[in-house]
Amino acid sequence: MTAIRQSGKINEDTTLIDIEMLGIQGIFSMYLIESGKKCIIDAGTKTEAQEIHNKLKELNAFPPDMIILTHSHWDHTQAIPFLCHKAEKMGKQIEILASAAAIPHLREQSFNDAFGLGPYENIKNDVTPLKEGDIVDLEGITLKIFEIPGHTNDHIAILDEKNNNIYVGDAIGIKPLDNFFIPPFLPPYWDKDTYVNSINKLKNIDYDSLCLAHFGYIYDDEAKSILDESVSVYEQWWKLFEENVDKLFDLAYMKDTIIQKMLPNFEHFGEVLAQTVLFWLATGFKIYKNL
Ligand SMILES: [Zn+2]
Questions:
Q1: 88 CA to centre of ligand 1 in angstroms
Q2: pLDDT tens digits, residue range 133-187?
Q3: How far apart are alpha carbons 79 and 66 in whole angstroms?
Q4: Are the C-beta atoms of 250 and 198 separated by less than 8 Å?
Q5: Distance from Cα 113 to the centre of ligand 1, integer Å
Q6: Pairing status of strand 135-137 against strand 127-130
Q7: 3-state percent helix, strand, coil for the chain, nearest multiple of 5
Q8: What is the whole-number distance in angstroms between the Cα of residue 151 and the centre of ligand 1?
Q9: CA of 125 to the centre of ligand 1 (A)
Q10: Which of 8, 25, 47, 207 has the fewest beta carbons under 10 Å from its own?
Q11: Domain of residue 214, CATH code
């Protein structure tokens, strides 16, 4: 095993926090980086915002100085209004940072309607725009920004240059368990070509470990081999969706087909979660293919 998929320290400066998204353990990890400044990577969901606040307080890390968003999808953004409001009540401000391309999407979150779990609150806070090569200084740790579109057009990777640990959000897919990898073609902004370019870009970055939003800290050889694995998983799933283009939204059929042909342990994801994720993938596929 070359992954840590539970709450706790992943290196001397960094804590993985399982936000238990939608009440389920092991599907969304937030990361707290503590140096001269405290920073969290991604904000999490509105339904878990109170719990995120509690967990950060327990870690003596509320409010953090900043939240850096890997991209603008709802599960990475919707806790922001609650967390910022709590900080303001303490007379503090949390700085929000995201790709410059994410800012219009944060202002208008209704594109998340494709996920069917709304309503989604627009993010009205000031947002500091980030671009390729920017450095965020945590006073003791520097974070370097890379643009890695594909999953969305506003996705960034964040390299902790002290620990040589890179945060890739959802850019390479969802891997909540060993031998359980789901591709990243989610709606509504999936783009295959920029995804492939971003994978190649990640291969050329010198890092030792990698953090997924869904889910966990990946180290040793798997931190690099997961990039090729992402592409082969993507190709397999895309092909299967192409072959079943008339049955994409027959979710029970798609689930059985995936269990039989590709991913036997998809069974263990639970009926509702499996069908929810398949609905999202089918929607991402459909929008990209203009069906
Ligand atoms: Zn996403």
A1: 28
A2: 999 999 999 999 999 999 999 999 999 999 999 999 999 999 999 989 999 999 9
A3: 13
A4: no
A5: 13
A6: unpaired
A7: 40, 20, 40
A8: 7
A9: 20
A10: 8
A11: 3.60.15.10
